[in-house]
Amino acid sequence: xxxxxxxxxxxxxxxxxxxxxxxxxxxxxxxxxxxxxxxxxxxxxxxxxxxxxxxxxxxxxxxxxxxxxxxxxxxxxxxxxxxxxxxxxxxxxxxxxxx
Length: 99
Description:
By secondary structure, the protein is an alpha+beta fold. It is built from 3 helices and 4 strands, in the order E-H-E-E-E-H-H. The chain is globular, with a radius of gyration of 13 Å.
């Protein structure tokens, strides 16, 4: 069952070094390569539900939680921190992902 962020408060912060295992599990859940470089995480309570690499703008998120608001919050925070918006790569965004 998916959880909505509307009912829960999400927060954004920099990832801690000891969260490497949690970030690895998050990438595995999202069926994506692990993030590298400086990473922002979105948490609900103490659970990391989404993460964004400030180096390349890639995002991984827990597919069992509704994370669209968390990802939006991560992107807005990244923009505020870096002072620029990343251009979305539509080709890769439109590429089908197989389960």
